[in-house]
Amino acid sequence: MKPVSFAGKSNSRKEWEDYAWERLLKDFAKISSPRDIENILAKIVTAHEKKQIAKRLAAVELLKQGKSYKEISRILWLSPTTISALKKSINGGDYVSGYGWYKKRGRKIWSSFPNPARKGAILPHGKLVFPQRRNKYRS
C-alpha cells in the first residue's frame, strides 16, 4: 500500500477519511492474494478490531442460518443492539453501532445506567464492575 498523498488545499478530517477509505478499497481491488490482504490489514487493524470484525462476520452468517438474537448473543458475546444493526445492514442498510445511533440522535449514551466509575456500577452486559460493600451507612 502506497503512502497517502492528497493535493487539496482544504484538508478537513472528513476529506482525509474519505480519501483514505477510497484508496484502501482501490488497493484491495488490485490484490488477488488473500495473504497480501492479510498483510495490509495486519498493519492497520489491531488484534481487538480483528476479533470484533470476525465476531460480526460470524453473526451475519448465524443470522443467515436463522439463529435467534439470544443464541447469537450467547455464542459470540455480542449485544442485541449490535446483532440488530448487523441484521439491518444485511437487509440493505449500512452498519451503525448503538453508540453511533445514540450520538446521531443527540441522546445521552447509557443514560439509564449508573456511572461506571462508581463502586458497584452495573454495566449494560449486566455484570457488576466493582463489588459493593454493604454497611450500616449504605443501603
UniProtKB/TrEMBL annotation:
InterPro entries: Trp_repress, Trp_repressor/repl_initiator, TrpR-like_sf. One of its GO terms (molecular function) is DNA-binding transcription factor activity. Transmembrane segments: none annotated. It comes from the Bacteria. Pfam families: Trp_repressor. This is HTH luxR-type domain-containing protein. The lineage of its organism: Bacteria, Candidatus Harrisoniibacteriota.
